[in-house]
Amino acid sequence: MTKTVFITAGERSGDAYGALLARALKSRLGEAVRLRGVGSDQMAAEGVQLIGDISPIAAIGGLEAFRSSIGRLISLVGLSRRITQEIPRTDAAVLIDCPGLNLAVMKRMRKAGVPVIYFVPPHAWAWGDYQGKAIARWGAIVASTMDIDDEYCRRKGCTVERVGHPLLDVIADRGGDRPDPGPDPEPHIMLLPGSRSHEVAAHTPALLRAATALRAARPDATFSLSSAGPRHDALVQRACREAPFPVEFVSGLDYGRVRRSTLVLCACGTVTLEVALLGVPLVVLYKLRHAVDRLLFQAFNKTPFCSLPNIILQESRVPEVYLNQVGDEALATHALDLLNDPDARRRAWTLREQLWQKLGGPGATDAVAELVVRELPSV
Fold first, then answer.
1. Which residue from 190, 98, 147 is spatially nearest to 357, judged by alpha carbons?
2. What's the CATH superfamily of 3-173+362-375?
3. For 26-45, how does the pLDDT look when each residue is reduced to its tens digit (9 = 90+)?
4. Per-residue pLDDT reduced to its tens digit, 188-212
5. Which of 202, 192, 194, 197 lies closest to 287 in space, CA to CA?
6. Most CB within 10 Å of its CB: which of 85, 91, 162, 220?
7. Is the pTM for the entire model greater than 0.85?
8. Into which CATH architecture does domain 188-359 fall?
9. Same fold? 3-173+362-375, 188-359
């Protein structure tokens, strides 16, 4: 009998993880599994029948949820209803990150007796205990990606299976685990403003101001500005056109281009780990646009770091610039220091090797697929 696995992903990175998981499940179960879920083009390309797109979810992540438009909230409510309708025909669910949606989905699925695997659990150790307690209460299996998740979730009474980090699978699948090709002869700086609309709007001007200062100090440098995907192409293209100097537009995160860059300036998020795992020097920026966001951040944030490389290693290895505290000039200063440092690439490659070793190598999505097969009834 065909079994149905429901997969939800609420971010660009989660869509990539969900796609590789779908591939792993099909390789094990073939026609005996039906895949449905919420995601985007990568999951769809691997045969997942999507009942909703991630756009309204990604738009309300983090603290910006407090100011989401009415239209987006209505879209999310409609999506939640469609997910509820899927529960009677679901044999197992895999929820990827995105606690704003997935904690509610987890509760409904578990009430109906559906096995739930929470893949890439919410970073409750950074923001608040209620998320970890909710996962433990409803009995979802945590597919843990790093040590800090393991330790926190076990303390809260969760059932934890360490699977490794799926980003290593994504990088290996796209050829990013090959030997370092080295940067292009002329210095090139890639600017990555983020994957959410509010991040792109907040970070792009700061990145371009820093790039202007860098260009004044290093006239030989070239720049590119990358969108996270088609949804933000128009906004990023307009920023490139309006820049006071030539800035190349890049659609999506091109690993080859990242690896040939001398330096990457990027918004805080999963992309910080991606760049570090590719062995390229980076500076991370974090900006909260509104006073209420800053108050909430100060009240609830429990970690001294914002970037995943620093969080994973529990030490400051990547410069983090909180623009609300220090301004754009600090971003340009950190970037210029790395750009002029002949040893920066070697240190970035050392950081890459330490992160690969700490995270355990590829194989996370295969491990989660095995968990799903184990939890499916009569498989």
1. 147
2. Glycogen Phosphorylase B; (3.40.50.2000)
3. 999 999 999 999 999 999 99
4. 999 999 887 778 888 999 999 999 9
5. 202
6. 91
7. yes
8. 3-Layer(aba) Sandwich (3.40)
9. yes
